Amino acid sequence: MEKADIGVIGLAVMGENLILNMESKGFTVACYNRTVSKVDQFIEGRAQGKKIVGTHSIEEFCDVLTRPRKAMLMVKAGQPVDAFIELLLPQLEEGDIIIDGGNSFFGDTIRRTRYLEGKGLLYIGTGVSGGEEGALFGPSIMPGGSREAWPHVKSIFQAIAAKVAGGVPCCDWVGSDGAGHYVKMVHNGIEYGDMQMIAEAYFLMKHLLEMAPSEMSQVFRAWNEGELNSYLIEITGDILAYVDEETGRPLVDVILDTAGQKGTGKWTSQSALDMGTPAPTVAEAVFARFMSAIKEERVAASKILEGPTPAFEGDREAFIEDIRQALYASKICSYAQGFHLMKMAAGEYSWDLSYGEIALLWREGCIIRAQFLERIKEAFDEQPDLANLLLAPHFQEAMERSQHAWRRVVAKAVMSGIPVPAFGSALAYYDGYRYERLPANVLQAQRDYFGAHTYERVDRPRGEFYHTNWTGHGGDTASTTYTA
C-alpha cells in the first residue's frame, strides 16, 4: 500500500478540506473515520483520483504513515480526543507525533503534551482558523506543544496555510504545550467581540436610523474599503444584501435572533478571570449571546418593561460616520484586551510568545483577518515589550481621533434604550485604563471595614498592608490579603 506523509482522523467538513488542501500541495494523505463508510464515500467522491489513502482501521491507518508517523485528529474537542489518543498509542513508536487540530481547551493540551511526552511520543495542539473555506484554500494555523515535533510538520503546515504579501505563511511555531490552542482561544474570543460590535452597529442603524438592510449593506461595503477592512465586515455587507427566496424579504430579517456558541469565548473570559486581567468586551459579547438565547423571556418582558422609543434627529450621514468610528475604537480596545491576556498567560505558563508574529498569523486565512492586524504587528515590532496596544503611537492617535464620535454613539444608544454592551464595555475599559486613580480605594476600605482585609496607602511603599479598627470595637486582627 502507498505510504502517506501525514494522516487525518475525522472526515467532517474541516477534516476533508484539510486533506484536500494537503494533497493539492503535493503530499500523500491517509484518512480514517470512526464511521468507516464515510472513508469509502470520501475516496469515491471528493478524493477520487487523488493521492489520498483510505483506511478502515486504526492499525491500517498507522501502518501506512511514514516515520515519524504524523497522525492529525480533526474530531470533536474533549473526550473524543482522549479516546483516539488511547486508540493510537498501541500502534505508535517513540518519536511519532499526534496532532490535535480541533478547538481543544488549552488546559487539556497541556495535560496531553505531558502525558504523551512521558511515553516517548510528541504532541502538537494546533489552532486552525478560517472555517471550511480556510481549511480548503489556506487557514491560519497556530501550532504549539512538543517543540521537537515542529521540524517534522513545518513543511506541511506552512504549505497549506494562508499566505500574506511575499508568500509568508500564516503559520509558525507559537510555543510549548498549550500555547497554540491558547492563542486560538484568544483569537476566538476576539472574534466574539468583533461579531458583537458589528451586530451593535447594525442594530443602531436599524432601530435608530431606521435603515433597510440593503442600505446598511452599502455602508458596510464602503467601510470595508477603509481602516475597518476585514473578513467580518466584508461578509456582513453580503449578508445584509441577501434576499430570502422563500419570502422575498431580506434574509437577515427572517433569521431568529438567538445566537449559538462553541464555548471558546467563554473559555477566554474564564481565563481572563483566572489571570486577573480585564477583558470585559469579550465577556460582554459572550453574555450578549446568553441574553439572545432567552428569547421567550425577552418576548414576554418586551410587553411589560418600559423604556425610551428610539428617535433620531440630525445629520444621518454624520451619525453613520460616528458609528464607524465607534466600531473602530471599540475594536482597538477589544484587541488590546486579547493581547494583554496573552501576555499575562505567557508569564503564567512560561510561554515565549511573539505578539507581532501572532498578529501576522491572523492576517490571512482566519475569521478575524483584517488590514488592522498589520498595525498590531508594527506596534510590537517597534516595542516588543509594549504593555498595552493602546499605548502604541498609532493606536493612541486613533483613539484620540475616534473617541468623541464613540462617546456620542454610546450616549445616544443609552438615551435611546438600545443595548450596546460591547461598545459600552470597550469604552469603560479605555476610560478605566487611562484614569490614574480609580474608585477601588472605596472598595478596599469597604473590604477592610467588614472583613479586615487590609489596604495599602498612597503615602507608603507598595506591599505594606494596613488595617483600621473602623468601629472602635473590631479589634486589631487582620485577614490575609489577596490580589487578583
What does this structure look like?
This protein has 20 helices and ten strands. The chain is globular, with a radius of gyration of 25 Å. Helix content is 53%, strand content 8%. The chain starts with 5 loop residues before the first strand and ends in a 33-residue tail after the last helix. A hairpin with a 3-residue loop joins strand 8 (163-164) and strand 9 (168-169). Helix 8 (179-207) crosses helix 12 (264-275), helix 8 packs antiparallel against helix 15 and helix 15 crosses helix 19 (421-434). Strands 3-2-1-4-5-6-7-10 form an eight-stranded mixed sheet, with helices on both faces. It has helices spanning 13-24, 37-44, 58-63, 79-88, 106-117, 131-137, 150-160, 179-207, 213-223, 231-241, 251-254, 264-275, 280-293, 295-302, 316-349, 355-361, 372-382, 393-416, 421-434, 440-451; strands spanning 6-9, 29-32, 52-54, 70-73, 97-100, 122-129, 140-145, 163-164, 168-169, 175-176. The chain is of the alpha/beta class.
